[in-house]
Amino acid sequence: ARNKAIAEAYVHSYAVLIGEAVLEMENDSIKIAFIRRAIDPIVFYPDSSGYFYVYDFDGTNIAHARQKDLQDQDLWDYQDTRGTYVIRELSARAQSGGGYVEYWWIKPGETGERKKLGYVEPIPNTSYFIGSGVYLE
Known about the structure:
about 140 residues, alpha+beta, 3 helices, 5 strands
């Protein structure tokens, strides 16, 4: 429960910060470069398993602090091992103002999917959303 509160506070803070910062930026490539730099060094939770990811509402990964290979990939059709369209669900939740989605994801540094509770919010002044999550035991 404590990690959920941390995820909400961090995601909200970064959504607001990025939304304000991009107002001064001229184009998408500058915005994306900034977002990648902004989220890259951030880790949280006692085990450092907390990190940020950013997608556009159409399911393309804009930035990922841990899985760089996902950047620029269209993950709209990605399904976890239980059949959930993870990015579609996260995008829909973000577009409705933000909230939680439960899904399965590979925890960085491990193999095999683990249950995860993702928290997402739209980034103001963009067509992107930012999220983080809590791996559930």
